[in-house]
Amino acid sequence: MRLFPFLATSVLLALPLQAQDPFLAKPFLQVGAVPKTDRMDLVWLTQDKDAKWTVEVQAQTKGPWKAMGNPTFKLVALPEAPKHRIYATTLHGLKPGAVFHYRVSLDGQTVFQSEGHGLKTSGQPQHLVLYGDGASGSEHQKALAFQMAKQKPDAVFVLGDIVYARGRASEYLDHYFSIYNTDAADPAKGAPLLRSVPTIGVLGNHDVAFMNARGDRPSDGLAYYLYWDLPMNGPELKVAGPNTPMIQPMFWPQFLAGAGERFPKMANFSIDLGNAHWTILDSNPYVDWSDPALRAWLESDLRRAGRSTWRFVAFHHPGFNSSTAHFEDQWMRLLSPVFEKYRVQMVFSGHVHAYQRSLPLSFKPEAGAAAKFAQHRQATVNGIFSLDKTFDGLRVTKTKGIIYIISGAGGASLYNTHQDDKPETWQPFTKVMASDRYSFTLLDLKGKRLELRQIAEDGKEMDHFVLRQ
Ligand SMILES: [Fe+2]
């Protein structure tokens, strides 16, 4: 019976080490409020306890370690979350697109070290991951995290429903940071993705203080605005004003102390990565994109995007969906004419827990459709479609119209799996649907060539096409 004493010793040894872990969430990279190729923000969470944190960066292998500015913190003190601090500092002096190393020290002792990947310039190829509807804590989410990290992407886009089920701080701790930022890659546990690759989040319906059956919204249900550190170049919005999410009014002061200026502005923004311009929109139905101020921002952003080779838009609720689930959530197709006017090539969404690829298409909504949505905030949108059936992504790689991708099979339970092999149940605009597998999207951009691959949780390719400018 020597086994038991051995186990007991292991447990005793493991406990003090775990108690010393200074992180509630280990350091992760963010693009920051004003993204640049020579810098990146580093964020981590701790208990509310005074400590002397320092961060150093080695911009190239064997180069000198340089001290970064003193980390600052914001306190999160909300009734339904453990009191904690969000620390951040900027890593600067990075080489565009190059691997760098950084280390985080507490009271002079290094407690965390990782490599990171700098943002790329417009001349460098891009290797990007996109997925939505992920952090439910499922085994599929963990396997996908492992496969995503294996791809060594330059950046990851999370297409909304970042955490389940109510956008809460505790949900980030339980099944976001703990799975996408593990110390080692393991398909049964997750991968050390967040520490080495910047992630860019898109708001979904589950990220905005999802209401429970009693009609309550959790005080920590807008954790998106606490933890993400994303571009602050979106349209101006007001707390408790139109086109913004809500929590109970009594919680605003405490929430805003943690979120600062990010709320409500950070819901919409744009970012240039390499030769691609990305416009990120909040598609929740409290937003009326026919609002003149919002529309003016969107048009001016897409007009500026004309300088980039690639123009992409990402938001959570897909306008063109063939699944029975969420079929009536069609309001975002109201923006198709704007996307077409500024020659957007592709639009990425989640919300529907499946993979779907549309034919290249253009769409003209019927008269009165925007007013109907503004009144009811839930609407099917009829209109005139023009479908490009000549594009095959192999021999014919130029399109007439926009390709709409749904990549929402990121870990939460799949929808309408029976539709997978029944194209007769799909809408005429859908070219490919895979609803019986968990998956994520890989996007490779090199000059005027784009290649998209959809990868399943076992690493197998499910769809593939090439698009050229
Ligand atoms: Fe959703």
Explain the overall architecture:
With 469 residues, the chain is an alpha+beta fold. The chain has one domain: 4-Layer Sandwich (Purple Acid Phosphatase, chain A, domain 2), CATH 3.60.21.10. 18% of the residues lie in helices and 31% in strands. Strands 14-15-16-17-21-18-22 form a 7-stranded mixed β-sheet, covered by helices on one side. A 6-stranded mixed β-sheet has the order 13-10-9-23-24-25, covered by helices on one side. It has a 4-stranded antiparallel β-sheet with strand order 1-2-6-5, with helices on one face. Helix 8 links the parallel strand 15 and strand 16. The radius of gyration is 22 Å and the shape is globular. Bound molecules: fe (ii) ion. The site of fe (ii) ion has 6 residues, from loops.
What layout of secondary structure does this protein have?
Layout: H1 3-20, E1 25-30, E2 39-47, E3 53-58, E4 65-67, E5 72-76, E6 84-92, E7 99-106, E8 109-117, E9 126-131, H2 139-150, E10 155-158, H3 169-175, H4 177-180, E11 181-186, E12 190-192, E13 199-201, H5 224-227, H6 252-259, H7 262-265, E14 269-273, E15 276-280, H8 292-304, E16 310-314, H9 336-341, E17 346-349, E18 355-358, E19 361-365, H10 369-376, E20 383-387, E21 403-407, E22 430-434, E23 439-446, E24 449-456, E25 461-468
Parallel strand pairs: 9-10, 10-13, 15-16, 16-17, 17-21
Antiparallel strand pairs: 1-2, 2-6, 3-4, 3-7, 5-6, 7-8, 9-23, 11-12, 14-15, 18-21, 18-22, 19-20, 23-24, 24-25
Bound molecules: fe (ii) ion (FE2).
